[in-house]
From TrEMBL:
Boundaries of every Alpha 1,4-glycosyltransferase domain copy: 268-392
InterPro entries according to UniProt: A1-4-GlycosylTfrase_dom, GlycoTrfase_DXD_sugar-bd_CS, Nucleotide-diphossugar_trans, Put_A1-4-GlycosylTfrase_plant
Region (Disordered): 472-493
UniProt keyword annotation of Transmembrane helix present: yes
Alphabetical keyword list: Membrane, Transmembrane, Transmembrane helix
Residue ranges crossing the lipid bilayer per the database entry: 12-30
One Pfam family, short name: Gly_transf_sug
Protein name: Alpha 1-4-glycosyltransferase family protein
C-alpha cells in the first residue's frame, strides 16, 4: 500500500512568481548573461543599457510563462509520494465533467442488472491476484445477473482488462472504472473535505491515504447509485439480491447486541439517510492517524449515536456476525489450515456446509491472512471448490491442459442425467435462464458424492468446456462417443465456430 501523502499548503500566487522572476533577472543581469544561451542574448556588451534590459525582460516573460504550473503539478513537485497524489487526483484526462457518471449509469442500465455491486482497488494492477480474482468469481458464480464495477484507476487499463476479460467473455458483467472523486463527492457532506485535502488545508495523516479514500468512496458510490459494496477479500456463498439497507455486525456481546459494526460489506439504496450520516461524519471528524477511525469505527460510532439520541430510523438492518463475518480476524488462520485425521476432515466439511447455509459471505481478513497458504482440505479450500468459475481445481485444464494460451473452464455434471442429449445455447441464455446455476448444483453434488465414495469424479461425468477468450465448445471425457474432434484438433484445423455451448 502506498505511504501516507504529505505536502505543505504552499501556494503559487502572483507575488511568489514576481519574486522568483526578479531573482532570475538579477542573476542574469550581473552574470553577463552566463546562464542564458547566446542566441537569445544578441546585443553588444557596449550597447545601450535599455536594449539590454529589454532583452532580459523578454527572457523573464518566457520564464514566468513556463513557471505557471497547475495546482496538481505543484503538489506533485513538492510531494514525497506523487503516486499517491495521482490516486487522489485520479480524474483521467479523457473524462469530461459528466463522463464518469455516464459511464457507470450506461453500464448498469444496459445490462439489466439484478444487483449493483461496487469494489475498490487502489493498489497496483499486478497486486490484483488470485484471491482478489476469486472474490469476483464467487460473487458472479452465486449472483450471475449482478453487475460489478471495480472503482480503480490501475485496473481501468489494458492489464486490468486482461485480468477481467475471461469473465466478461463468459457473459458476466464486470468492469473496472477510474473513479472521479470530485463527481462522486459533489453535493455530499465530504465535498469540502476533498477540497481541503487538495489545497493542503487538511493533513491526510499517517494511515495510508488509499485506505481512507476507499472508506469514503464506497459510501459515496452507494449514496449516488445504490447497491452493494464489498471488499476484495470475501468469498460470496449465496444470492445477495434480496438484501436491502443492511450492515453487518462484526461482534456481539453475550446478550446478542452488536458491539462493533464493519464497513467491508454494505447494502443500501441510493440517497439513504444512513449513508448521508456516514459521509457527514467522515467530513467533520476525519482523523488520518487512527486505524479504522474513518471505517469500522465510523459506522459503529454513527449508528450508536443515532440509538443514543433517539434519532434512529428503523429503515436499515444490522445483520449478525454470521452473515458476513462468521470468523473473527484473530482466528481466520484456522480456516486456511488442513485439519488432521479423518475426524478433522469431517469437521472441516461440516463447517463449510454450515457456512453455506447461514452466511451470505465470509470475510477472510486479508490483512491477517494474505500470507497464509490455502491448504488442501481446509475450510477455505472447500468453499473455493464449490463457488469457483475459472479457479476450479478439477477443471478441464487437468485433462486437456491450456491450449494456445487460453485458460479453460469446465463444469462437471452427472452424465447419467443428461447423457445422449445435446443442447445448443448461447452463453447469454445460459446465464439468464439459470441453467448455469443448475450445472453448478449438479457438479457440486457429484463432487460431494464422489468425495464421500473415494472415487474420481472425472470418471463418472462428462466435461463441458468453455474457452475463456473464445467461443464455447464442448469436449466429452476422453473416449467420448460423440464423434466430434477434440478441441486441440479443432484449433489445428483453423476453423471458426459460433459462440455456442454444447452439452452432451
Amino acid at each position: 500500500m502506498f505511504d501516507s501523502l504529505r505536502f505543505s499548503p504552499l501556494k503559487l500566487n502572483r507575488f511568489s512568481t514576481i519574486s522568483l522572476a526578479l531573482i532570475i533577472f538579477l542573476i542574469i543581469f550581473f552574470s553577463n548573461g552566463g546562464i542564458v544561451s547566446n542566441h537569445l542574448l544578441r546585443f553588444d556588451t557596449n550597447g545601450n543599457v535599455k536594449d539590454r534590459v529589454r532583452n532580459q525582460l523578454l527572457i523573464l516573460q518566457t520564464e514566468a510563462t513556463r513557471l505557471r504550473i497547475t495546482t496538481e503539478e505543484h503538489y506533485a513537485l513538492n510531494n514525497k509520494n506523487p503516486r499517491e497524489l495521482d490516486l487522489l487526483l485520479a480524474t483521467p484526462y479523457y473524462y469530461s465533467a459528466s463522463a464518469f457518471d455516464s459511464r457507470v449509469t450506461r453500464f448498469f442500465d444496459s445490462n439489466k442488472c439484478e444487483t449493483r455491486v461496487f469494489m475498490t482497488w487502489f493498489s497496483r494492477v499486478d497486486m490484483f491476484g488470485e484471491r482478489e480474482f476469486f472474490t469476483v468469481e464467487s460473487l458472479l458464480q452465486t449472483n450471475p445477473k449482478a453487475c460489478l464495477v471495480i472503482l480503480s484507476r490501475t485496473m481501468d487499463s489494458e492489464k486490468g482488462k486482461d485480468i477481467l476479460n475471461p469473465l466478461i467473455g463468459l457473459g458476466f458483467h464486470v468492469r473496472a472504472m477510474s473513479p472521479d472523486f470530485g463527481a462522486l463527492l459533489k453535493n455530499t457532506p465530504a465535498e469540502n473535505w476533498l477540497v481541503e485535502l487538495k489545497t493542503g488545508k487538511r493533513e491526510p495523516g499517517k494511515i495510508p491515504l488509499a485506505q481512507n479514500l476507499s472508506n469514503l468512496i464506497r459510501l459515496a458510490a452507494l449514496y449516488k447509485y445504490g447497491g452493494v459494496y464489498m471488499d476484495t477479500d470475501f468469498i460470496v456463498l449465496k444470492d445477495i439480491s434480496g438484501l436491502k439497507n443492511s450492515i453487518g455486525a462484526q461482534s456481539v456481546d453475550l446478550s446478542g447486541k452488536w458491539t462493533r459494526l464493519n464497513n467491508a460489506f454494505l447494502v443500501f439504496e441510493k440517497k439513504h439517510f444512513l449513508l448521508h450520516k456516514f459521509i457527514e461524519d467522515f467530513g467533520l471528524s476525519f482523523d488520518g492517524n487512527i486505524w479504522g477511525y474513518n471505517g469500522p469505527y465510523l459506522v459503529s460510532r454513527v449508528v450508536n449515536g443515532l440509538v443514543e439520541t433517539g434519532e434512529e430510523e428503523h429503515n436499515f438492518t444490522v445483520l449478525p456476525p454470521e452473515a458476513f463475518y462468521p470468523v473473527y480476524w484473530n482466528r481466520v488462520a484456522g480456516f486456511f489450515t488442513r485439519p488432521e485425521g479423518s475426524s478433522g476432515a469431517k469437521w472441516a466439511r461440516a463447517q463449510a456446509r454450515k457456512l453455506n447455509r447461514s452466511s451470505y459471505a465470509v470475510h477472510l481478513w486479508n490483512s491477517q491472512s494474505r500470507r497464509l497458504e490455502i491448504e488442501e482440505g481446509s475450510i477455505v479450500d472447500s468453499l473455493i471448490s464449490s463457488h469457483c468459475i475459472l479457479s476450479c481445481k478439477n477443471n478441464a485444464s487437468n485433462i486437456e491442459g491450456e491450449i494456445a494460451g487460453h485458460h479453460p473452464i469446465a463444469v462437471t455434471v452427472d452424465s447419467s442425467e443428461i447423457a445422449g442429449t445435446a443442447v445448443k445455447i448461447s452463453i447469454g441464455e445460459v446465464i439468464q435462464s439459470g441453467l448455469i446455476e443448475e450445472i453448478y448444483r449438479r457438479r457440486n453434488k457429484l463432487r460431494r458424492n464422489c468425495r464421500d465414495d473415494g472415487e474420481n469424479p472425472k470418471r463418472r461425468s462428462n466435461l463441458i468446456r468453455a474457452d475463456r477468450r473464445g467461443p464455447f465448445k464442448s469436449i466429452g471425457a476422453r473416449g467420448s462417443r460423440s464423434g466430434r474432434p477434440s478441441l486441440r484438433e479443432e484449433q489445428k484445423s483453423g476453423e471458426k465456430y459460433e459462440h455456442i455451448l454444447y452439452i452432451y
